[in-house]
Structures are given as C-alpha cells and as structure tokens.
Amino acid sequence: MCNTCGCNLTPGNQRLAFKPVAKGATAVSVLKGLLAKNDDQAAHNREHFDRRGILAISLMSSPGSGKTALLEATLTALKNEFTCAVIEGDLETENDAERIRALGVTAHQIVTGTACHLDAHLVHDALHHMNLDGVDILFIETVGNLVCPASFDLGQHLNVTLLSVTEGDDKPAKYPVMFRAADAMLLTKTDLLAVLDDFDPDQAEAHLRNLANPAPVLRLSARKNLGMDAWLAWLREQLAAQRARVAIGQSRRPAIQSDGQTFHSASA
Amino acid sequence: MHELAVAQALVEQVEAVIVQHAAMQASLIRVHIGPLAGVVPELLATAFPLAAAGSRAEHAELEFSHAPITVRCQTCGAETEAAMNRLLCGACGDWHTQIVSGDELLLESVELETVPT
To answer: Considering CB atoms only, which of B31, B39, B108 is closest to A151?
Structure first.
C-alpha cells in the first residue's frame, strides 16, 4: 500500500481520512494495512520466486483433508517433468516433510509450536534452508486451518483450497474468508462419495460462487488416482502462465486483492 | 487466534508513528476492520493489552470502525450491500461481483500526546 500518493484511498475507506481532530491531541491519519510488515516480506518472497522463475502455490484446508496425500500423488506424477520443492507447516513433528522426502523431493518443515498459521517471515526463513536451484514449482502446505491462514500473504502466486467430501459441502459458506481467497478449489477423496449421501459436489460449487469466486472446482481422489489429470493440467497451465509473466517482468498475487492493492496493481 | 499477531503488528506500527512524530505516547488508536478481513475486533481488543504492555501504546484506547460489505456487479453495474457468505448482486442476483468495501484491515489514525501529561 502507498502512503505517499493517496492511492490507498478507496471508495470503502476514503471517508475515514477526513475525521475531525480531537481537542488537545495530534491526530495522525495513517491508513496503512495492519499487516503491512507481513505483506512487505511476502512481496520480497514473491520477488525471490519470480527472479528464479518459480511458481509458488499455497495449499490450504482443514486438517485431514488430504493435502499431503495430494502432494505425494502430484510429486510422483510430475517427477520426470518438473523439479518441485515443498515447505510444510505444522504445529509439531517432521512427519509430513519426511513423507515428501521419501519421494526424493526437497522438503523443509516449519514447526510452528502453537501458532495457528504460517506468515511471510517464517516462509522467508525456510527459504534460506532450502536449495531452490532449478525448482519449477514450490508448494507451501499451510497449517491445517480454515481460519487464520487466509489473512496472511506468504508470497505465493496462487491459493489452492482443498475441501474433502467427508466434510460438509457448505464449508465455503461457513468459512467465506478462506474460500474467497481460493484460486482453485479441489474436492478431494471423491472416491468416498459413493458411500456418503450428504455431500453434494454441485452444492459445494454453488457455495463457492456465492462468494463471487470464479475459481475452477476440480474433483479428485489422490489415493485412487481419480481426476488427477485435470489437476496436473491446471498446474502445467499455471506454470506456463507464471513463466510468461516472469518473461515480461510481471507477477501475480493470490485471488484476494485487498483494497488499495487493487488500485496499485494496474501500475505495478 | 491470529489476532495476537495482528495486535503485535498494530503496536509496532503505532510505535513507528510515535517515533515519526516525536510524540510521547498514543492516546487513541482507530482501527478499521471489514467483516471480510478475517480479524475479529473483540478478539483484537483482548489481545491488544498483551501486545501493548510496556510500549508507548500501552495506555491508548482502541476504537473500531467498519464499513458494510458492498459489492459492485460486473453484469448490471449496481452497487449493493451483501452478506459475508453471499456476495451476490442485490439487484440482479449475479455472482460476478467485486468487493467495494468490507475487506479492509487498516490502521486508520492515531491520536498522539506530544507533551508530557
């Protein structure tokens, strides 16, 4: 955001800039994003990725929706095509990173202790522990949580949000902040649909559209290798798009453009 | 529970404003939080004293404001209010809308004491 030219004033907040000054005090108008420091670090991370031509994707979902299983299947399928790397975020254990390393893929585990989300600084520190030479796609598996990760930009280009069919199809309506930020929504574990009578994939998609989100909805099962081709094709498409952006010196932020940045992105 | 991280970022920014204006301390902090920002004002208010302890924002009052969620329809052009999980056009019902307001997370202004009290 910009505090110099006033471009962070939007129809939603401009009235705030002209509040009367209380007597006996100096009122300073700031109008700065509360998470500006995180956002600056995220922008730095993103530049780092762009310089190396890396596509960075954040995987977000509730715990147990199959993020790591999806990664295992994806990394195996792309093994001979692209070089991938993974950052894992969990409160405790190296378990997920070990599962990825078992496939011969570089993985760094961020152990957050009790923190419920990753932030741009944690990701930056992780990058310093990783060899990113020749990496095409970096996956960041966030802490399983449908609330907090939505508020923190990590420097990724795309958000992929998983919704397993063992959860309710109304999750997008219950967690609008998270699902509004999705650049793609994956309905996972679809092989279980046959034994579940209360999850309607069309309904899940309708709830996503209610959030004004045009993101593609892909239905797949990583374990049973169902619908993986469409997901892999989407990844190839996104990597090609990232390379095209890098070639002309552009970048992209995930689906949500917080206000102010919307106004800046045209000139950035 | 990420409100504590937000509170810490808030205190850091207020400290920077205090330094920038060579003030003694902050007396009032106005924060603008839209319903779609993913931050709960009440929880931020609870976390604030913990983050502010020992800082020059410690004795400041925290004031919240919020704009309603408003969307602009890309199909019919209408600007209408919307609910958090139903960001549809209030005029024609289309979901191809853009957020006009309601997703802000801003430090709006700070009132500073410039002389010792």
So the answer is: B39
All residues of chain B having their beta carbon less than 8 Å from the beta carbon of residue A27 are 109-112
Query: Is the predicted pLDDT of residue A25 greater than 70, yes or no?
Result: no
Q: Does B116 lie in the same domain as B63?
A: yes
Q: Clarify whether residues B5 and B56 are in a common domain.
A: yes
Number of domains, chain A: 1
Minimal CA separation from B53 to chain A, in Å: 18
Structurally, chain B folds into a number of domains equal to 2
Chain A residues closer than 8 Å to B85 by CB: 172-174, 176, 207, 210-211
Q: Computed from CA positions of residues A157, A163, A168, A170, in that sequence, does the dihedral angle turn out positive or negative? A: positive
Are residues B9 and B55 both part of a single domain? yes
Range of the domain at B35: 1-67+103-117
Residue ranges making up the domain that contains A243: 38-247
Q: Does some domain include residue A262? A: no
In terms of domains, do B38 and B73 share one? no
Give the model confidence (pLDDT) of A55-96 as tens digits.
999 999 999 999 999 999 999 999 999 999 999 999 999 999
Smallest Cβ distance to B84: which of A148, A176, A256?
A176
> By the CB < 8 Å criterion, does A171 face chain B?
no
Q: Provide the ipTM.
A: 0.80
Domain co-membership, B53 together with B78: no
Q: Both B74 and B56 in a single domain? A: no
CATH number at A172 reads 3.40.50.300
Model confidence pLDDT, tens digit, residues B64-109 = 998 899 999 999 999 999 999 999 999 999 999 999 999 999 999 9
